[in-house]
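Recall the central idea of this unit: under ordinary conditions, the amino acid sequence of a chain determines the structure it adopts. In this exercise we apply that idea directly, starting from the sequence alone.
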Amino acid sequence: MNQIVVVYCDQQTQLNRLISRNNLNEEEAQNRIHSQVPLVEKCHMADHVIDNSGSLESTKEAVTKLHQTFVSSNAHWKLRSVVLAIAFIVVGLSALTLRSLL
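Accordingly, the structure predicted from this sequence is:
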């Protein structure tokens, strides 16, 4: 699957979480945020955008919906087919190797 997913939150929430999680002061956190591609640009490049500004439950719901979209897509079935084909090849090669050893 060639899908880009961006999970974002508002700037103040991002700043507060970064300070709290990484034990940074506000200036260090701002510098880290400004060293990255701006979220607005990331969101424009994304195929899917999840807003993580709200509650954990609302983020979980958004992730679950996106997961369901991926599962029901053709890409998911194509990936499954490839994995299944590889599994058959591996099992077949293992059987051939086992026969040659006997």
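The beta strands are 5-8, 48-51.
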